[in-house]
Amino acid sequence: MYENLTYETHDGVVTITLNRPQVYHALSSALLQEIKQAIDEAGADNSVRVVVLTATGDKAFCSGADLKSGMTSGMSLGTSLRQYYNPAILAIRNLPKPVLCRLNGLAAGAGCSLALACDMVIAADTAYLCQIFINIGLMPDAGSTFFLPRLIGTQRAFEIASTGRKVYAPEAAQIGLIHKAIPAADLDLSVAEMVEYYRNAPTAAIGAMKQVLNQSLNADLSQMLELEAEGQDVLAKTFDAGEGIMAFLQKRKANYRGK
Q1: Does residue 183 share a domain with residue 167?
Q2: What is the DSSP string of 178-209?
Q3: 31 and 158 housed in the same domain
């Protein structure tokens, strides 16, 4: 079904693994379409509680656009972004389930954007992120101009984007660009711990939270208060909310079903 990535489902967890190691998982049109398809498939499966996005090997998560694939042949860069990149990024941000990035290696250019589109990035301390667009006379795309200033502020965003320097995972975690930097040998264990938490969390509440947080920096307080009120009305009718309240009153651990 998928030629450029693997899609594995196990016990409520979907792992999407980029699999073009010969080009450091560079983003071709086919891979981008498959990423969107895989995210959509995870969204349509009610048994899925959390998604992990990663890549094979330990050298690269994603090296950015595959400039050698000819994906932009006869097509403007803007059209390529609109047709292939942007739908994949929006699919991740709009998925009403948590998406964790297991950052196993370099994330460059649009590959950096792909990582930052995830809800949480857990990285090997040997991994790094790099906005390499400046090296070919272009500006960041695939969402980096949105994610960077929101995560680290406008001055740091400008410096990292305009210099194209490598930001290794320990620094990235320190400045808030990613969630956590972990010794490479412990990366899988750390990701597994977060996956286990989200696999047992109230998924509907996580999805609603993600949707509202996506809007928080573009809305005023009164708008956010209304979004909160609307969201709570919906969530109050879910099984998980009822179970959570009952568990609290009974002083026991809640058994959430993601419904």
Answers
A1: yes
A2: SSEEE-GGGHHHHHHHHHHHHHTS-HHHHHHH
A3: yes
- The continuous run of DSSP H or E covering 122 comes out as strand 120-124
**Pair 137, 166 in one domain:** yes
Q: What is the pLDDT of residues 24-55, one digit of tens each?
A: 999 999 999 999 999 999 999 999 999 999 99
Shared domain check, 230 and 193: no
Cβ atoms of 204 and 189 closer than 8 Å: no
Range(s) of the domain holding residue 174: 5-199
Sheet with 50-55: strands ordered across:
5-10, 13-18, 50-55, 99-103, 120-124, 180-182
Asked whether the predicted pLDDT for residue 240 surpasses 90, the reply is no
DSSP class of 255? -
**How is the chain split among helix, strand and coil, in percent rounded to 5?**
50, 15, 30
Q: Which residue has the tokens 């073009």?
A: 20
Assign 29 to helix, strand or coil. helix
- Asked whether residue 195 falls in the same domain as residue 212, the answer is no
Same domain, residue pair 64 and 179: yes
